[in-house]
Amino acid sequence: MEIDRELLKGSISLLLLNLLSRGEMYGYEILQAATVRSANAFEFKEGTLYPALHQLEKRALVKSQWRTGDNGRERKYYSLTGKGRKAAEKYERQWQYLTGAVNAVLGSK
Amino acid sequence: MTPAERLIDEIMGAARMPSGRRRREVQRELLAHVEDFVSSWRQRGRSEEDIERLLLERFGDPRQVAEQFACVYRRERAVLHFGWFLISTVVVSLIISAAALSMQAGVMLGFGAPVLALLGSRHAITEALDIAATVATYVGLVSLGRFFGYPLAVLAVVTAGLFALFAATGLPTQFILFGFLNGTLLRGIQVAVRHRMLQFGAALGCLGALGIVFFHPSSSALVVTAASWLMMGTAYHLMTHVASRVDRVLAARL
Q: Which of B32, B62, B73 is nearest residue A75 as measured by Cβ atoms?
């Protein structure tokens, strides 16, 4: 299902932090992980992913480093910082609360 | 150049990255992504044309992507450009102050006056402040023009406003305002007049006219004052060249 860009916008940070809380990844891996874990529901566009990752890095929620991966190619790996780990937990709690409230409203029709 | 490389170039060209180092790093990251994307779809047996089309679709409108990157780095860009402006102003001010004071010292020697009286006097400080204000205004207008672009009419309105302020104030504020006015005039001349020699002539003419209108030199001091304006006009014209060179060097380094 094609998800409205505006709806997705608010959840990108949460999704990226959550994916990175499972281990360090580079951009292409993140895209694939999001697609697989959401059973193809989410397909981040490259043009959305990289600015979002850079924004998280600027906010010191993630850090990055270039290194050679298992495939022998140099890639920029992103991982969570301590601050990012706390933010991931906080965003998740907020998201559960919000979706619970939204579902309650939608279910009350 | 492949369509994917062209796309990344287009994104990078419009993303207004704050530094060359940052630009190269983002470019490297996007190219690495393209490499992974192409190799992954090749393994799935897709044709090169298909892969290219898919890639362009997935990246989306390059201007929008560039705008998102620009948004991420806007604060860093502002800080860097302000630093750039300050460095340009200080470097160019120092060069032009040294050049202008040396030329004036030469004129004084020619008139048989003691040079130390010039270099150690309040005149030298006023002159240095005046030059710093001129350079700051000129470099600031060049930077603003680069990012926002402005028509000549804007410069004309700013100059007219400064003229009014200049006429309404007294010493010593007038000297600083004189610098702002010089800087605006020099930039205005540069934007309005294309020919190098005409620019030089216009700069000398405008500075001379400003001096005569506002400082009313006595007839006995007119020759010395005119010589001084000639020196200053030459130094300011030189400033516009030095400023663009400093600008280019900083742009390449940062």
A: B32
Site from B33, B39, B57, B67 to mutate, A interface, most A CB atoms within 10 angstroms: B33
**Cβ of residue B33 closer than 8 Å to a chain A Cβ:** yes
* Residues B231, B195 share a domain: yes
Q: Are residues B200 and B156 in the same domain?
A: yes
What is residue A43's DSSP assignment? -
Which one of B38, B72, B106 terminates a domain? B72
Angstrom distance (rounded) from CA B251 to CA B17: 12
| Count of structural domains within chain B | 2
Q: For tokens 């020619």, what's the residue?
A: B110
Domains of chain A in start order, with CATH, are 5-102 (1.10.10.10)
Q: B104 in helix, strand or coil?
A: helix
Residue of A nearest to B71 (CA): A51
Q: What is the pTM of this model?
A: 0.66
Measured between CA atoms, how close is A46 to chain B, in angstroms? 5
The residue with tokens 């281990």 is: A23
Instruction: Indicate the residue among B22, B53, B72 that finishes a domain.
Output: B72
Q: pLDDT tens digits for A35-82?
A: 888 877 777 788 889 999 999 999 999 999 999 977 788 999 999 999
The answer to whether residues B130 and B225 belong to one domain is: yes
Q: What is the ipTM of this complex?
A: 0.86
Tokens 């579902």 label which residue? A103
Sort out which chain A residues have CB atoms less than 8 A from B71's CB and list them: 51
Contact A27 B72 (CB under 8 A): no
Q: What is the residue range of B49's domain?
A: 3-72
| Mean pLDDT of the residues in chain B | 80
What is the spatial distance between Cα A68 and Cα A76, in angstroms, rounded to a whole number? 9
Residues of B in contact with A75 (CB under 8 A): 32, 36
